[in-house]
Each structure stands twice: as structure tokens, then as C-alpha cells.
Amino acid sequence: MAVVGGGIAGLAAATLLAERGVAVTLYERQAYLGGRVGGLPTTLRDGTTVTMSRGFHAFFRQYYNLRGLLRRTDPGLRRLTALPDYPLLHADGLRDGFRHVPRTPPWSALGFVALSPSFGLRDLRAMDPVAALPLLDVRVPDVYDRLDGTSAHDFLEAVRFPRRARHLAFEVFSRSFFADPRQLSAAEMALMFHIYFLGSGEGLLFDVPRSPFPTALWEPLGDYLRGHGTALRTGTPVTHVAPRPDGGYEVATDGDEPRYDGVVLALDTAGLRGVVARSPGLGDGPWRERIARLRSAPPFLVSRLWLDRPVAPDRPGFLGTSGFGGLDNVSVLERWEDEAARWSARTGGSVVELHAYAVPPHAGREEVERGLVAQMRRVYPETRAAAVVDARHEWHDDCPLFPVGGYPDRPTVRTPDPSVTVAGDLVRTGLPVALMERAATSGFLAADALLERWGVRGQTLWTVPDRGRGPLLRALAARAG
């Protein structure tokens, strides 16, 4: 079998196939594994070798299948560490967080409203509870039938959700999709609300890797795959996939065109579009047209700064922000990552990471980079006296966009070719999963679909409940029709 793509989805598919005795070759165009959660070494001006990645990722406790993948090499998940809170800060000084919010539904949602300073009595009276009823019983794929034709922004307008709370709560979800709420399907936002508030007992607290992504996650998993006979061909982009007249598929790279019995396409949106466009024998006309219509989210920026002095000791490891220009969050890496902690201890400085999501496509990059640094100095005033001794800026535009009305075009795991499957966070799974968890889940499902042809047992998958957990809440939601 060939797995095209070495991100979370491809690694999940390759792991399951290899564990079931299948000979697997994994192709990855980058020189490293992990996809958007990967990283490469870089040398700072002071001679220190550090790892630069695509930026902070939260490993939520609801990521059951991703965590199951990581347990292959870390059974106790000791390479992850918990951050104590998910703090949020608005430019007007309003602060929020999830540390003290109850985790048991529906008290989790009610507790957030009761404890959050962004909800006032006047705001609550102004809300339209009937318009919010669909959030009480989110089901997949029903939620897409009901809400995919509405933007996240318009849904919140209909609910008359308080603007301050909207910035600090729901826009956190939409921005995590690297999209403006006006472009994001309300169904995806509602699904996130279900996953974190009403569908699970884990809440919005999360873990992060203790070491850079390659060291903590993907190098051990790569060794695990090699131990199961998998050939890892990093730095090897696939140009096209061609069905053979005698059965099987040729997977073409710049070097050769070996034959495989089946293929998992675990690519980002642009990568999938490109391979399918160059592979005229794959799928049928309608499927190929749907793939061609897929879109990527706007560009995003990750700026990592090495400062000559520390931030204040009470600064959290991660802070979500709103109202600070294009700045969406700030991370202080030495709070949890050992590599950054060693640099900080040796130099007395701090390693700070800044994110900007959904950057306007025509924005000047240097201007945006300077703007993030200026906003950091607003958020953490003690950094105004700090010199930036080194910096790295990562620009990318390869995240999937889930636009209003776009759900029918998104691929499913199965394709018109029984021996070709698709995996990734852009894929429709029919399960209540999102982001990294959707990538891992779809990777396992893609391998399951191929193993099924030989009658081989696949992977047991876990998700939050596929509907609202409370009978009363489901009854109320039914009133919304």
C-alpha cells in the first residue's frame, strides 16, 4: 500500500496498515513527518540549534483517536503536559478562561455563562434562546443539513449572542479553523460547541508536548513504523497516481513509479487538488469536479521571537487574544517546552510565539510581522524594553476552508475507486470530530476501508457522543425543527 502524505492522517493510516501486516510505503514531500504539526532544525545567531515548527497546537482531551495514535510509542502520554487554563484576553481588558468551568454537560455550558464576565444580565435577556436551540442536539451529518448554509457570524447574529462573549468564546472556534466567521460554516462552529461543551466531559483544557513536535511525537512514531516494515520516503513529492490496466496503481515521483494494491491520499487541500488534477484515471467526473472546487483557508503567520529578557513570571504559557489587530494568541514556550526552557535558562530571555490567522491574502508580510510584534508589546508591556535577538516567521496557506454551503463538496474517506481512500482534516467522516482529531480519525478510517476488502479487522474508534447527551436538551432542540 502507498500512503501519500506524512501528516497526522497519513501517519494514522500507515500505522494501522503496518500493524495489520501490510507492506506500506509512506511518501511525504517535506523532509520531516507531522505535516502541519511538524518541525525542522534551525540555527540562531548565537549558534544554538533549535526547532522551528508551524506553531502552537493544543492537544485536547477529546482527541481520543489522536491520543491513541500517540500511545503507540508513549503509552502513558508522558511526552504531553497539561496547561492549567485556556485564558482569553480582549483589548478592552476583559479576561476569561475555562479552568473553573464545570466539565459535566450541560453544566459546562451553563457554568461558562455563569462564570464568564462577558455575559451580563442585559445580554442574557437580549438573546434569542429559540435560535440557539440547534446547539443543544448537534448530530453528524444532520448539523450540516441544518446549518451549513449559514455562516458562523450570521448564526451568532440570529442568536443575538453578546458581542464581548462572541469575541472571547465562539470566535476562538472559528479562528482555530483559520477563517473569518463570515466565511465559516455555522455547522463547523456548532460541532465544536458540541465537542467541547455539551458532548464531552473533558472541557476546554488541553495538553501540549514537553519537547518540540519531532522529538516528542513523530520521530518515535517514525521509528515505530520502520520497526513494522514501513518505508518512509520523506522529501519525496508524488506527482500523480495512475490505475494500471492489470490492477493496482502506479504512484509516480521524480524517481520511479512503483505498483501498489491500494493508495491512501492523505494530503492538504491544495495537494489533493493537484494530485487528482494530474491523475486523470482516478475517480469519476463528479468526484473530480468536487475535489477541484475545494478551497484553502486564508494565509496565517507564526512568528517566533527570542527575546533578550523574560516576560513577567505570571504570564501563562498560552493566551488567546481578541481586539489586538491581527494577533490571535501569544505563547511563552519556556513554560512547557524543554528546548525553549534550556535557552531561556542559559540566556535569561524568553521564547515567545505569536499567531495571526486569516490574514488578508494581499496584506504586506513585513507589515503584518511588525504589527504582531507591536501588539505583543501591548499585551505584555514588559516586552517593550526587550530586544528581539532572533526571529523566525512561518507563512502558510494550506489549511482547509469550510465555507458556507461547502459541505457537499468535501470528500468522504471512500472514493469511486474501491482501492483509493482519502484522509485528512478536510474529509467528511460522519463522526463528531474536528481539526487534528478529524485527521487522525480519517486516517484510521481510510486504512479500515482498505483492510475491509481482505476481511482484516480495523481500528476501534472513539468519539464524543454523536448527539446531544441529555434527553431534555434533545427535546428542546427538536422544538427548533
From TrEMBL:
Signal peptide: none annotated. Residues 8-451 form the Amine oxidase domain. GO terms for molecular function: oxidoreductase activity. Pfam families: Amino_oxidase. It comes from the Bacteria. PANTHER family: AMINE OXIDASE, PROTOPORPHYRINOGEN OXIDASE. This is Isorenieratene synthase. It comes from Streptomyces actuosus.
